[in-house]
């Protein structure tokens, strides 16, 4: 056991800086992708509530399709496929867009479930007292949807954080790619990948605790 742990003492000064930098990049990637997925998910659920059948069915098809396609295929399409038609993204941008497009479908379903949990009479009552449709949605409906959806949204963020490791396959220098480079350099893959796993845990664990804490209050 001591022999297994000894490299951490020997190489702590060499391993810690690149791992901390990679943690920051992983967190930045995950937060940016999730923020974009929230915007896209809200737009999708609003379009799915549209009175225009074409828009509603188009969004339903998008959600069903994206949820059935592997995230890696989306990342490869954006980074390796689109340059063939003249559209080029750097690896980090492609990872943000790919993660956001994939998780927007999940976010949209969470928002839709939250909307369905709101009694229609609340919006009708708001319209009856003089609220505009926009005001009734933003001031009455949306805050309740956010309260209902907040705990599962945090769980979705944690899933996105873990899936961001796939961005290493399109050369984003996040935790997994950094760990792979370090394992090649130091020939200690077990210790290094264990350290990478601990880094993911340190980012995700507080959010997991927060989601558990918020779940009972959201249910009320």
Can you describe what's shown?
- This protein has helices at residues 2-48, 53-68, 71-81, 91-116, 120-128, 133-163, 175-186, 189-219.
- It has 220 residues and is mostly helical.
- The radius of gyration is 21 Å and the shape is elongated.
- The mean pLDDT is 87.
Number of helices: 8
CA-to-CA gap between the ends? 48 Å
Query: Helix content range of the residues, please?
Result: over 70%
- Can you count the beta strands? 0
Give the uncertain stretches in residue-range form. none
List the helices and strands in order.
HHHHHHHH
Shape: elongated
Strand count, sense and closure of the main sheet?
A: none
Feature tags:
220 residues; mainly alpha; 8 helices; elongated
Summarize the structure.
This protein is mainly α and 220 residues long. The protein is 83% helix and 0% strand. The chain starts with a helix and ends with a helix.
List the helices and strands and how they pair.
Elements: H1 2-48, H2 53-68, H3 71-81, H4 91-116, H5 120-128, H6 133-163, H7 175-186, H8 189-219
Helix pairs in contact: 1-2, 1-4, 1-7, 1-8, 2-4, 3-4, 4-6, 5-6, 6-8, 7-8
């Amino acid at each position: 056991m001591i022999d297994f742990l000894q490299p951490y003492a020997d190489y702590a000064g060499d391993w810690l800086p690149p791992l901390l930098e990679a943690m920051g990049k992983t967190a930045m990637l995950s937060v940016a992708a999730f923020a974009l997925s929230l915007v896209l998910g809200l737009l999708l659920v609003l379009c799915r509530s549209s009175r225009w059948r074409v828009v509603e069915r188009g969004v339903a098809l998008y959600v069903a399709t994206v949820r059935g396609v592997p995230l890696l295929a989306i990342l490869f399409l954006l980074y390796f496929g689109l340059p063939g038609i003249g559209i080029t993204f750097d690896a980090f941008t492609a990872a943000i867009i790919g993660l956001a497009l994939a998780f927007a479908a999940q976010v949209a379903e969470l928002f839709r479930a939250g909307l369905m949990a709101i009694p229609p009479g609340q919006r009708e009552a708001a319209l009856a007292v003089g609220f505009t449709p926009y005001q009734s949605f933003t001031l009455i409906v949306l805050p309740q949807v956010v309260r209902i959806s907040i705990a599962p949204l945090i769980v979705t963020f944690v899933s996105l954080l873990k899936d961001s490791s796939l961005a290493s396959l399109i050369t984003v220098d996040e935790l997994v790619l950094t760990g792979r480079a370090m394992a090649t350099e130091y020939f200690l893959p077990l210790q290094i990948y264990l350290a990478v796993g601990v880094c993911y845990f340190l980012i995700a664990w507080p959010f997991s605790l927060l989601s558990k804490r918020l779940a009972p209050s959201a249910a009320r």
